[in-house]
Amino acid sequence: MKSREQEYKEIFIAEALEYFDSLNRHISELEKQPQDDRILAEIFRLLHNLKANAKAIGYLQISDVSHKLETAFSLIRNKELSFSDEVVTVLFDGIDMLGELITNVDSPIPVEPDPVLLRNLDIIVDSLSDSTIELAKVQKYTTTKNLSLSDLIYIQIKKLDHMLNLVGELIIDRDRIISLSRELNNDDLKVVSSHLYRITEELQYSVMDARLVNIGTLFNKFPRIVRDIASAERKDINLEIQGQDIQIDRNILQIITDSLLHLVRNAITHGIEMPEQREKAKKSRAGSILLSARNDRDNVVIKLKDDGRGIDLKKVKKTAVKNKLVAADVAEDLPDSEVLSFLFEPGFSTADEVTEYSGRGVGLDVVKNAIDSIGGRLQVDSKLGVGTTFTMQLPTSIAVKGALLFEVDTIFYAIPLLHTEQVIALDKDELHEVGDVMVADLKGETVTVVYLHELLNADEATINFGDKTRLKGQVQNIVVVSYNNRKLGLIVDKLYRQQDIVVKPLSKPLDKVDLYGGVTLLGSGKVCLVLDVPAITRYFIQKR
C-alpha cells in the first residue's frame, strides 16, 4: 500500500507538470502579445502556486526557481521590466529548467539548476531595467526529450457522482439476478451471478475510493479560523488537530464544512470562558479545542471537544419551557440526554449577548439538518465546568448505505445501520404501559417502544401507542434506533438481514410523507420502503 507521503508526491508532480505545460503555452502567447495583462496574470498565478506547492512538500530547488521567475514576471506586469528578446530567452530557459527539475524529482541522479542560468535570472530580478542587463551566454535548455504524460488525471466530481449512481443501479440489478439464480436453481446462472457480485462489489468500492479525500483538506483551514475568532472574542485558544489523514467522501466533506465551522464558532464564543474566568475556575488561561477524526468500521467519526464552561442543563430546561417546547413539570424529570436534544430545536439559543460570531438566532438545528441530509448522526455530551464534545458519525457514501431489512404487515422496510443501536427480542410482559406509550428497561435505561404497524398504518383517530393488546404473539422483535440523543424501540413483525441498499427518492405524492426517506428494490424485485429515523423520532416526540 502506498504511503501518504508518496501519494502527496504523485499529486504534486501531476499538478506541477500541468502547470509546466500551461506556462509553456502562455509564455509563447505572451511573446506574440507582450502587452496582454490577462496572460501575464495567469503566468504569475501558475508560478506563485508552483512555488508554494513545491515549498510545502520540500522541493526547494523547484520553489527557488519558481520564485525567481515569479519575481521577473511581477516586474514585467508592473512595467519595470520589458519583455525584450534577451529577457525572453532567459525566461524560456528558466521555464525549461523548471520542467527538468519537475520530471526528475524521483531520479536517482538529481538534476542541478544551471548556475549561469540562475545568475541571469538574478540579474533580471535585481537590475529592474533591461538597459543595465549584461547577460551571460548559457547552454540553452531545450525540450528535445520524448513527450510524456502524467499517470494521474483530475476528474470533475459530478462525473464521479454520475458513476456512483450508475453503480447503484447495477447493484439493484445484480441482487435481482442473484435472487433469480437461486429461484431457478441453475448452476450456470449461479456461477455468472457469483462473478457479477464480485465485479460489482469491486467496482462499487473503486468508484467510492476515487471520491475519497483527506479530511485534512478541511481540518487544516481551522488554525487560521480559530485564531481570527479567538482574537475577535479576546480569548486565548490552543487548537489541536488529529486524524488529518483519515479519508472521507468528498461530497460528504463539502456538506459538513459549514456545520463544522458553526460548531467551532460555538465552542469559542459559547464554550470557552474568558481568560480571567478560567483563572478563577483554576483552569489555564488558554482554552483548548480538539478537532479529531477516526474510522469506525464503515463510518468516519469527527469529534469537536472543548474544555470550556460546559452546557448549563438548568438554563437549557428554562429556555425550553420558555419556548413552550416542554411543560415545566415534565422538564424537571427529563434525562440529561433529552435536555441536551433541545439545543437542536429551530431557533433555540441560550446566548445572552450578540457578538460578531454568535447569538444571531442561527442555531444548531442548521447543523443537525445538514448531517441528517447525508444520513449521519450528531451527538452532544457536556459536563458543567468541564467542557463539551460534539460527535459527528458520518457514512462513507451517500448513494450506497448499509441497512437492516425487516417486515411489517407483509411490507418490506429498511432502516440505515447508522441509526440502528441494537436488535433485541423481548417478551410482551417486559413491555410496560405508561400513560399512552409502552416502555422497556434496556440495560438500566428506560426506552419508549412503538409498534411500527400502529405508527405506519393505524387511523389517526384510533391510534394508541400504549395498547399492548394490539401486539401479535408473545415475543416481540425490537429494533432500537437513536436520533438526537434519544432512543426509540420499533417493534417489527419479522427481521431479515443486513445488506447494502441504494436509496432512491420517492415519487410524488409519496415524497411528502415524512416518515419515509426513500425506496429501494430488493433482489426479489419487491419494493422496500426506507424509514426516515429522524422524522419518526421527531413525529413521536411531538405526539407525546
TrEMBL record:
PTM-bearing positions, type Phosphohistidine: H48
GO MF term (any one): phosphorelay sensor kinase activity
Domain HPt: 1-105
Example GO biological process: chemotaxis
Keyword terms of this UniProt record: ATP-binding, Chemotaxis, Kinase, Nucleotide-binding, Phosphoprotein, Transferase, Two-component regulatory system
Pfam families: CheW, H-kinase_dim, HATPase_c, Hpt
Xref: SUPFAM superfamilies: ATPase domain of HSP90 chaperone/DNA topoisomerase II/histidine kinase, CheW-like, Histidine-containing phosphotransfer domain, HPT domain, Homodimeric domain of signal transducing histidine kinase
Enzyme Commission number: 2.7.13.3
Catalytic activity: ATP + protein L-histidine = ADP + protein N-phospho-L-histidine
Sequence ranges assigned to domain Histidine kinase in this UniProt record: 159-398
Superkingdom of the organism of origin: Bacteria
PROSITE patterns in alphabetical order: CHEW, HIS_KIN, HPT
GO cellular component, as recorded: cytoplasm
Limits of the CheW-like domain: 400-542
Top class in the EC scheme: transferase
Annotated function: Involved in the transmission of sensory signals from the chemoreceptors to the flagellar motors. CheA is autophosphorylated; it can transfer its phosphate group to either CheB or CheY.
Protein name: Chemotaxis protein CheA
